[in-house]
Amino acid sequence: MAYYTYILSSLPALRFGVPAPIAPGEFLRISKGLIPEEEHGLLSRIFGGELPTGNNDILKKWITFDTTLRNELVKIRSARRGEGHEKYIRPGGSEDFAITHIALHAQRTPSILKSVLVLDKARWDYLNELSIGHYFDLDALLIYAFELSILKKWDLVNEADNDSLLSGLLMDNAGAKQ
């Protein structure tokens, strides 16, 4: 028997733009033994950077959204370079004007970091749409895991030692000019 209600009610709330209140390892530890091993494996693969596959509707919708977003970015970048994009397109996407708009907005953002922020905010918003009607089930756990992985990515970005990164870039550029 799975204890989704227990797991989800014991997890801290997640908010975009706020540091992750729980580590992925802790999330996996809490859920271990309380859900079937196959479901726990899905959660583990999410944190491993893998896009898990399966018959789950939420996973299918998420994969379609993410693939479509990535494909739209490929089309935009290829067009800017004057290259064909066909060889870079991943199967499984769809045609969606809203996603095209998100990709265009991100691409037009002058800062790379802000561009990625636009993309991750769109991903977060889509996950919130998917969460409607899912409160204490596997789908809610999957959505939580995807949201937590987004927050952890931004925690790493925000924890980076920007001064040493900038120094390294400046040193590399100075050496390249000589």
Can I get a quick summary?
This protein is mostly helical and about 180 residues long. It has helices at about 5-10, 25-30, 35-45, 55-80, 95-110, 110-130, 140-160, 160-175.
Description:
The protein is mainly alpha-helical and 178 residues long. The protein has one domain. The protein is built from eight helices and no strands. Helix 3 runs parallel beside helix 7, helix 4 packs across helix 5 and helix 4 packs antiparallel against helix 6. The longest helix has 25 residues. The radius of gyration is 19 Å and the shape is globular.
Strand percent estimate? under 5%
- Derived structural class: mainly alpha
Cα gyration radius (Å): 19 Å
Uncertain residue ranges: none
What's the helix count? 8
Q: How many distinct beta strands? A: 0
Helix content: 55-70%
Largest sheet: none
Number of domains: 1
SSE topology sketch:
Elements: H1 4-10, H2 24-31, H3 37-47, H4 57-81, H5 97-108, H6 112-130, H7 138-159, H8 162-177
What key phrases describe this protein's structure?
mainly alpha; 178 residues
